[in-house]
Amino acid sequence: MSVLIAYCTCPDAASADVMARALVAERLAACVSEMPGVRSTYRWEGRVEHGNEVLLMIKTTREQLDALTARVRALHPYELPELIAVEAVGGLAPYLDWVVEQTRDDD
């Protein structure tokens, strides 16, 4: 089973907290780290925008990615939320096993 780290930016701490709690409670993520103070620069609707955001680092598995993506789209206040997942190619084996265990839907 592949462990992934998904990155998602949120406009504020409140929306980041709602998303983090829901993803963990629903076993779509084992852990979500919230990193405030991210400054993003991006092009949107033909203009260059700047904004302060909270970055979520979501630890999940490849098997949960589709469900996690759907949940992020449902919860996120942005019209087009950022969600990028990368594979964890290494790490502490017991931690990676824990991520897999916490995202299993076998309760």
UniProtKB/TrEMBL annotation:
Domain of life of the source? Bacteria
The record lists the membrane-crossing segments as none
Question: Which InterPro entries does the annotation name?
Answer: Ion_tolerance_CutA, N-reg_PII-like_a/b, N-reg_PII/ATP_PRibTrfase_C
Similarity field: Belongs to the CutA family.
Name of the protein in its database record = Divalent-cation tolerance protein CutA
Species whose genome carries this gene: Novilysobacter avium
